[in-house]
Amino acid sequence: MLVVEDEMMIALDVQMMLEDNGYAVLGPVGSVEGALRLLDDTRPDAAVLDGNLRGQPVEPVARRLRGLGVPFVLSSAYDNATFADHEALAGVENVRKPVTEARLMVALEKALS
Fold first, then answer.
1. CATH of domain 2-112
2. 18-52, pLDDT tens digit by residue?
3. For residue 68, how many other CB atoms are within 10 A of its CB?
4. DSSP 81
5. How many CA atoms lie within 13 A of 57 on its CB side?
6. Residue-range domain boundaries for the chain
């Protein structure tokens, strides 16, 4: 499971939630460039993406994941309307921040099915 989040405390919290539910975590990665580099060598089963990484939209990572056939969910404080114009992010479930374990696990199960 790839975690792409630029705020370290949130990233570690999401990582812990995932690991507590049996997922092996890649990252966390805090930048678009870092995530794309990691995806050059690794294909995760799924991913959790923050919508905005240090002022950069996460869309390039979402496009790469879609190209690899990797399901993902968003974990963003922005509402879904913010992502409607981004083809790679349109229709992707946003578990919102603050992330709760229950919402995250339900969204991931849905994305993986």
1. 3.40.50.2300
2. 999 999 999 999 999 999 999 999 999 999 999 99
3. 12
4. G
5. 13
6. 2-112
Strands (E), the chain: 2-4, 26-29, 47-49, 52-53, 56-57, 72-74
pLDDT tens profile 50-84: 999 999 999 999 999 999 999 999 999 877 767 77
In this structure, the chain runs to a length of 113
Q: What whole-number distance in Å separates Cα of residue 110 and Cα of residue 102? A: 12
Tokens of 78: 């922005």
* 81 HSE (CA, 13 A, CB side): 0
Residues 6+ apart with CB under 8 A from 79: 94
Largest Cα span, the chain: 34
Cα–Cα distance, 79 to 51 (Å, whole number): 10
